[in-house]
Design goal:
The chain is mainly alpha-helical. It has 4 helices and 2 strands, in the order ααββαα. A two-stranded antiparallel sheet has the order 1-2.
């Protein structure tokens, strides 16, 4: 007899946006190497973090960028005074995230 938990696990479809842990770690290493330790938005700061440009229910492991802590705070801040800066940064990072994935899969 199958338990409810095992039935859910059996019926669960693989998520194409979620990488296996080993592949994800290799991809993070690739992005960090490509960024050469600098924030990929071009601000000139040291890249301290990895940021998923597609997040929430659409979180996609293929959309990561190397980013500074300062820029990461701007992206996640709920500061309505900086909404334009936040929007521009989000668009730029999404573009960079897509390019990182293209470069990785070549």
């Amino acid at each position: 007899m199958l338990t409810k938990k095992s039935q859910l696990h059996k019926n669960k479809k693989p998520n194409p946006r979620k990488m296996p842990k080993i592949e994800y770690e290799l991809y993070v290493d690739f992005v960090n190497e490509k960024a050469k330790g600098m924030c990929q938005c071009g601000c000139g700061r040291k890249a301290d973090d990895i940021h998923h440009t597609l997040r929430g229910i659409y979180k996609d492991d293929r959309s990561i960028v190397a980013i500074s802590r300062h820029c990461h705070n701007i992206v996640h801040a709920c500061n309505f005074k900086k909404i334009d800066e936040q929007s521009r940064l989000n668009l730029l990072l999404k573009k960079i995230g897509k390019q990182n994935w293209r470069d990785y899969t070549l």
